[in-house]
UniProtKB/TrEMBL annotation:
GO biological process annotation, one example: chromosome segregation
InterPro entries given in the database record: Chromosome_partition/occlusion (IPR050336), ParB/Sulfiredoxin_sf (IPR036086), ParB_N (IPR003115), RepB_N (IPR037972)
Protein name per its UniProtKB record: ParB/RepB/Spo0J family partition protein
Domain of life per record: Bacteria
Entry's Gene Ontology cellular component terms: chromosome
UniProt region (Disordered), positions on chain: 1-27
Residues in ParB-like N-terminal domain copies: 74-171
Leader sequence residues: none
Length: 333
């Protein structure tokens, strides 16, 4: 049997380097460059770069669209927000509710963004979120910090779109009083946002029932006649407001009521409601007196006037003889 030849590794010192190729590149053992196994092929580099560029363009386009459509939440400087850009629909906020909101934002941060419209570079007008903005401003004044507000930058096509957004947000979160609803209708017409009250009602409260819009329309009279003299207008109940609206159409009642409110300064909503109630009752009595027909003087000092179930004969010159005579006539009639 032939003997097997034992193979031994070559001595590195005896290995001669391979000659250079015609292209001038060095030749390596086994034909592999040191980094060839790790470096991807050139076509893979191009494909990878193209995919990264496409992904970046897609993300950029989506962010641009989100910002344009008002879907991108941004942290804006609190000082850059113009809170009175629109005539606000809400007149007052319950102090306890505001303190609750302040405590919530302090503990958990701002959970819901406000809505703004860009007015100029670095300046934004508030559309909705007045309570959140007020709470942040209070926290900033009390404790410092809270210098930014989370906001969605909207791009309303016209002023009415901004007013609708404000009203809808407040109706959903904390319903407005009927006085506040009527007031924003009146102010929107005054500002030229809507040409008529009817147009403002139908657009601002498009989702409301016809009955609700009718009540808001009735409160417009209260806003116009009593708005400047009411101390607690948001506390005005629906029933009393509707009653006032109908009474204010009577000649002289608005002036008398304004005079009564001017003489007494109510300290609480209950005090003001008491003044209004007294005025309504006094007006009813006066109306009843006006409805009664004046007595007819049928003879000197003797008057006859119609009453509910017949007629009434009175007067300083009415004697027993007159009464006996009238009785005799009735008995023989």
């Amino acid at each position: 049997m032939a003997k097997r030849k034992r193979l031994t590794p070559p001595d590195p010192a005896q290995v001669q380097p391979a000659p250079e190729t015609k292209a001038g590149f060095p030749s390596y053992p086994l034909g592999l460059a040191p980094s060839a196994a790790k470096r991807p092929a050139p076509i893979a580099d191009v494909a990878g770069a193209a995919a990264a560029t496409a992904a970046l363009q897609e993300v950029t386009a989506e962010l641009t669209a989100a910002q344009t459509e008002g879907r991108l939440i941004r942290a804006l400087p609190l000082a850059a927000i113009v809170s009175d850009h629109l005539v606000r629909d809400r007149i007052a906020v319950d102090s306890d509710e505001m303190e609750t909101l302040i405590a919530s934002i302090k503990a958990r941060g701002q959970q819901t963004p406000i809505e703004v419209v860009q007015l100029a570079a670095g300046q934004y007008g508030l559309i909705s979120g007045w309570r959140r903005l007020s709470a942040l401003s209070t926290l900033q004044a009390r404790e410092g910090g809270f210098d930014t507000v989370l906001a969605l930058i909207r791009s309303p096509q016209q002023a009415s779109d901004a007013y609708v957004a404000m009203v809808e947000e407040n109706e959903i979160r904390v319903g407005l009083s009927y006085f506040e609803r009527a007031r924003i209708v009146a102010r929107a017409v005054e500002e030229g946002v809507y040409p008529t009250t009817k147009a403002a009602l139908q657009d601002l409260f498009a989702s409301a029932s016809r009955t609700k819009r009718s009540k808001i329309k009735s409160f417009l009279t209260v806003v116009e006649e009593l708005g400047p003299v009411l101390t607690f207008p948001t506390a005005l109940g629906e029933r009393m407001g509707l009653d006032l609206s109908s009474r204010l159409e009577e000649p002289g009642f608005a002036a008398r009521l304004r005079e009564a409110l001017g003489k007494e300064t109510p300290d609480t909503p209950e005090d003001e409601a008491s003044i209004l109630t007294r005025a309504l009752k006094a007006n009813v009595s006066r109306a009843k007196q006006m409805d009664r027909p004046a007595p007819d003087e049928v003879a000197p000092g003797i008057y006859v006037k119609p009453v509910k179930d017949g007629v009434q004969i009175t007067g300083p010159n009415l004697t027993e003889a007159h009464i006996a005579h009238i009785r005799a006539i009735l008995e023989h009639s």
